[in-house]
Amino acid sequence: MNLERGHTFSFSPDGEDFLLDGEPFQIRSGEMHPARIPREYWQHRIRMAKAMGMNCIALYIMWNYHETRPGVFDFHSGNRDIEAFIRLCQSEGMWVLLRPGPYVCAEWDLGGLPSYLLSDPNVQLRTDSATDARYMAAVARYIEELIPRIKPLLIHHGGPILMIQIENEFGSYASNPAYLEELRQLWLKGCVTGPFYTEDGLPQLERNRTTVAGGAIALSNGDVAQITTVRREFPAVPAMAGEVYPGWLTHWGEPGFAGINYDLSQTLIAFMQSKRSFNLYVIHGGTSFGFYAGANVDGSGNYQPDITSYDYSAPISEQGVATPKFMKYRDIIGGYLPAPLPDIPDAIATLECTDIDALMPTLYASIWDNLPTALPREQSIEPQSFESYGQAFGFVLYRKQLQDFTNGVLDISNVHDYATVFVDEHYAGGVSRTRIPREYAQPLHVMHRAPLALPLTLPEHQSNPGGPVSLEIFVEGLGRVNFGPALVDRKGLLEPVRMKIADGPFSTLKGWEVFLLPMDETFIVNLKGSCSNPLKPGLFFKASLVLDEVGDTWLDMSNWTKGVVWVNGHNLGRYWNIGPQRRLYCPAPWLVRGENEVLIFDLHQIKAMPVELADTLN
Prior knowledge:
618 residues; Jelly Rolls; 3 domains; eight-stranded parallel β-barrel; six-stranded mixed beta sheet
């Protein structure tokens, strides 16, 4: 396929077909997200999709990955260069479906919306300017930043972008035609005239009529029968299956990885026989590195954070391997095409893990010896959310002196999302917003939202029984909810902390010291190797991985409890012993020949344990 200047993309007058250069065109798209793939692997993953029979790549742009602070954008560093990814698609002969949001879902923190929006206690997300002008002003700034980057890449300017999606699955959130039209007008104002399209599940589309003027319609979990239904109800524009699921997302604490047994064979046969357009969500998932994995809330209100891996049981694995699904689907799709498919790219090399001894980390530092200056007390008469302090991710420590303490019960039931509690250097237990299987929660005395009984007897080194003690609540923010009505999901202590001493009533604790611990690149670079109390959980451990050659690998964290891993300063993401994920993917480009630094922060362990290397996710 030659994607040179001069192509056109449009819709047939009767709305039946997508047209490329005036001829009916079947979009065979595979979705992948540049933010979840090391830049060095972009080309490999695009070529893998092409080898499975795709002619198009769909991609989300995660707004919060590019604007981390209001007005401060990054479209250049690491894997953030969206323009380069799209040009790479074009150089590989692939068209592009662009899904820039502003909301994307994607099992990504806050569905891609920047967390700084939540610093406004009255914010309303995903709504028009008449309802919340501040939200739409931020959206306008984002789209205005995108337009000069995207416009040259549109098909009528010689680029590979066929269509731009307006918002995402809005019918699952609300019905507000003014909002969708306002988004469309922002693009038009920048002389980006489409073509546009929307994405929704069929029931939501039928209920809320969430389309835009002249825009095509894509269906979540769509198939040929649903496309036929949409063609009857919306005959003026073409329809496609915009998200066809070859796998599914997985939450922490679930019994296994989701979507393993999905088989799309019959669905793909129907698409190919009918020549209907489709997008596989996802053909390759990659990894939600760092703190970007999102979360859901189920029908009973239970908070469900997503695992770090976005393998998704997709045809192309987290590491880029052609799975059995890939081979089956390639054979199906290729059987309907006139020309042979390109060869499958060579697999990415993995480390020979059997030749490498298990890493044995050693104690390096304590978070308690790396606290920044506390915020002024007047900012925290009562604890506030991360967002109110201007912090997006990581941890916050809330500290207060208690007078005349003997024992008590602490109520922090509205913690978002996981807290470890200390009374004068002594770990007293934890509180989790997530339901944790009993076999993991009980040994750590971690409660699910319930009030936490503080120790009746303080440690022997307590020098003044019955006197003042220090209460410390160390809070981890997990992924923000990325789907549904509970989207406004702030982190930290969201309600006043209450406590009762002995048999007395609950009273509110006021006057807190607050320490912001984003665990970002700057914090990790400046971490001091100091630990004055190795018995107090909240410790960093370090190991050296010496390599003659580099290759992809996984760090098996089965012997650890809950925390984060960095390799040479790159945040691999979260681990948690409740599973099902126990291995973290480390791509070869983040390793070097010679010595590599592995840094582990664990919320609970005070004893280092071995870390095995592995060559698969599970």
